[in-house]
Design brief:
Layout lengths: L9 H10 L1 H7 L4 H19 L3 H5 L6 H14 L2 H17 L23 H8 L5 H13 L3 H5 L3 H10 L4 E2 L4 H5 L9 E2 L1 H12 L17 H15 L10 H14 L3 H8 L5 H5 L5 H15 L8 H44 L2 H19 L1 H17 L4 H19 L8 H10 L6
Antiparallel strand pairs: 1-2
Helix pairs in contact: 1-2, 1-3, 3-6, 5-6, 8-12, 8-14, 14-17, 20-21
């Protein structure tokens, strides 16, 4: 009877590890997702398919290298390119870790057959309308808000979120062990979850669906991955979404697109997503959770399904800033208006006091007569004519120069108009300007 991958459960893989030290040696210290969903599953499928034990696979005497190559090629002819590549990788890893390095180089290369897009915000909203079971809904929100891969989300234990959740923070960091970040293969990002995941998480804890035991996984069950895929696929069908959308990985692509739209720095984006493309990203980029939290919160409006316009918070902040500036301008204008009103009131009061006395009216009459005499004075007429001509030729004259030239000519004009008035001595004139006119020395 031909082996079927669907028939392989976690218990079968555990039994394989217990019965064969070589398998235990090979899978020791690897993440659960690698043990149960990748290497362990593919090895068990391979040995069942070809009716061979792990020990026989490692024996150079009973199983020649070309025999293993023939079995791998036979598997490749029966499976998809992606599945065959995973089997080939698992068998070679198993042999190498157990000291067998004589297999010829593989000719099998994985070729991506198709590109799959992520959910749009509208599609994700429609999908969540059909996810009504608390744990499935929590899983979907944590997948969407953290950007972690599906199996990494399933590996989350309460201790990974305990610190920030119990501190009551608005965003909760998922603090994995180092093996999640630095092991070979696909790595977890320095991820967070937002308000929707936190609300659902607290409710599930309250309802007894999730244990607060530090070692307890958030999502349990016999086969949580397959059951989650089945549930999300059914919800996707009910929502009449594009059949090509990936049930879980579509959330990760949605998350990464949201970070792109938020325009956060590339280095921070790589740390949050778990993409370490170069030496700088692997060893030097800042991965402190408090440093990355600010960028995650900045991007969260683009992630949150309830926010239609993700730039609205920044727009509101800008409008508030503009409103504050308008208030300041209004206060300045109001102060200037009050000052002008006070100045006009003082001028009116001085004018009334001047006209209300005999001496004041006489001073005004004398000033008007003096202005008439000044206008008809030949010396003053030549001065004003020359002043206007100089201003026209030079494109204007500064107030300081006008004052200086008037100070030069006014003694002569005054003697012509009022020969009976004696000139003011220079000392008295300076004191007069300083005390009565407010001029400086």
């Amino acid at each position: 009877m031909r082996a079927r991958e669907a028939d392989i459960g976690f218990r079968d893989i555990d039994l394989l590890i217990l019965e064969h030290p070589s398998v235990k040696r090979w899978l020791w210290g690897r993440p659960d997702s690698t043990v149960y969903n990748n290497y362990g599953r593919n090895l068990l499928y391979f040995i069942r398919r070809h009716n061979i034990t792990p020990e026989e696979l490692l024996s150079k005497r009973t199983t020649k290298p070309l025999r293993i190559m023939d079995m791998l090629q036979e598997s490749a002819s029966e499976e998809t390119n992606a599945k065959a590549s995973r089997i080939d990788l698992a068998i070679r890893s198993f042999c190498k870790d157990n000291g067998r390095n004589d297999l010829p180089r593989s000719k099998l290369r994985y070729v991506k057959q198709k590109w799959y897009r992520g959910y749009t915000k509208e599609e994700a909203r429609k999908l969540f309308a059909y996810i009504n079971k608390p744990l499935f809904r929590l899983y979907a929100y944590m997948n969407l808000e953290s950007g972690l891969r599906a199996r990494t989300v399933l590996a989350i234990q309460y201790k990974h979120i305990k610190q920030d959740l119990e501190a009551g923070l608005d965003t909760v960091a998922i603090r994995f062990e180092p093996k999640f970040y630095y092991a070979k293969g696909k790595k977890a990002g320095f991820a967070f979850i937002g308000k929707h995941s936190i609300e659902l998480l607290r409710q599930c804890i309250k309802d007894g669906l999730i244990s607060t035991d530090p070692e307890a996984k958030l999502f349990k069950g016999k086969s949580p991955y397959s059951s989650t895929i089945e549930f999300l696929t059914l919800a996707k069908q009910k929502a009449h979404l594009d059949p090509e959308l990936q049930p879980t990985h579509g959330f990760r692509k949605y998350f990464e697109n949201a970070l792109d739209d938020a325009h956060i720095p590339r280095e921070a984006k790589e740390m949050i997503e778990g993409h370490y493309p170069d030496t700088r990203a692997k060893h030097y980029s800042n991965r402190d959770f408090e440093y990355l939290r600010a960028f995650y919160e900045e991007a969260y409006p683009f992630i949150d399904l309830e926010i239609t316009d993700p730039r609205l918070p920044s727009k509101v902040q800008q409008l508030e800033k503009e409103l504050e500036e308008l208030r300041m301008q209004r206060n300045i204008l109001s102060q200037e208006k009050d000052n002008l009103t006070e100045q006009q009131t003082n001028q009116a009061r001085a004018f009334i006091l001047l006209l209300g006395t005999k001496e004041g009216r006489k001073a005004i009459r004398n000033a008007v007569e003096f202005a008439d005499d000044l206008e008809s004075n030949p010396t003053w007429q030549r001065f004003t004519s020359q002043l206007g001509q100089d201003a026209e030729n030079r494109g204007g004259i500064t107030p300081e120069e006008v004052t200086e030239r008037v100070d030069t000519i006014y003694p002569r004009v005054l003697r012509q108009l009022r020969p009976d008035i004696r000139p003011i001595p220079p000392e008295l004139r300076k004191q007069f300007e300083k005390r009565l006119l407010g001029t400086n020395d």
